[in-house]
């Protein structure tokens, strides 16, 4: 494992208790009865540093603010024509959404992780709450809204390899309060690091990022999600922007085919006010660009067999965030994230493929 050493522990963190079995709607509205209650809050277990023989120590939590979806997968021969009904070979509904994926990754890496997000009071919301809890995520700040369904996506997998996806934003995009509750902002202020994506309204991300900046908490924005320009007001509160090469190209309107082109596109991000850009390059690895410094490149850690790349980017970003909040060097963070992503692609699905800390450490021992 080489240079993975135990560093001084981060500042202590405070645990906040909030059971969000509430609706964000006024009491005068007819709110349907909720099908489930989130499990009671519990004190997170302390985390282990990279070194296998390190002692346990408490740390400020990872706080993920973002989306939660029920992903409905159907495998079909071809898309139906207008007015036609076709049969699916298989069908499966799994918990997903970039926010929930990243939160579960943090939880499965044995790091104290909160998820701040919204689901509807329906069966899909129950599915997501159970998946989050099963991944070790603290649900004190998971809210249930009464007038919107849980966000979901229908993923149509065709036998020729083509995929078509229909997304219903649901509670991810609707019913957010104009001002987030004080309890949610407080957990952001006390975080070790905050992780955002773009599958919830920009206004929510801006509020969270601004609160984090005022408290000196670093913010990582995963650029995945809505295909729209990132508001300048959000960018100015972001410490690390993390796109893949396609997202980087869209955000900058520049080509990203070669390393030189990627570097030029990142230069445009620096001019937009983002000092650090973490670019995910799929099979070509990853690169961290820090303004004024030499880029740090990380090759992939090859998997014996790639089964499913779904969730690999979310795994990479969340694992990088965990390593960073634990005080590791940027090079160590990239390697830890590469190991986690390598394990992720060897298992089908997003949340089911998130690796645990022991598996990541074992892989790092051989690389």
UniProtKB/TrEMBL annotation:
Regulation: Activated by a monovalent cation that binds near, but not in, the active site. The most likely occupant of the site in vivo is potassium. Ion binding induces a conformational change that may alter substrate affinity.
Pathway entry: Carbohydrate metabolism; D-ribose degradation; D-ribose 5-phosphate from beta-D-ribopyranose: step 2/2
The protein's name in its UniProt record: Ribokinase
Binding positions (substrate): 69-71, 97-101, 199, 314
Gene name tied to this protein: LOC105165484
Principal cellular location given in the protein's record: cytoplasm
One record GO biological process: D-ribose catabolic process
GO molecular function, one term: ribokinase activity
GO cellular component: cytoplasm; nucleus
Coiled-coil region list: none
Compartments in which it is found: Cytoplasm; Nucleus
Pfam families named among the record's database cross-references: PfkB (PF00294)
Cofactor: Mg(2+)
Keywords: ATP-binding, Carbohydrate metabolism, Cytoplasm, Kinase, Magnesium, Metal-binding, Nucleotide-binding, Nucleus, Potassium, Transferase
Enzyme class: transferase
Similarity comment: Belongs to the carbohydrate kinase PfkB family. Ribokinase subfamily. Belongs to the carbohydrate kinase pfkB family.
UniProt entry tagged with the keyword Transmembrane helix: no
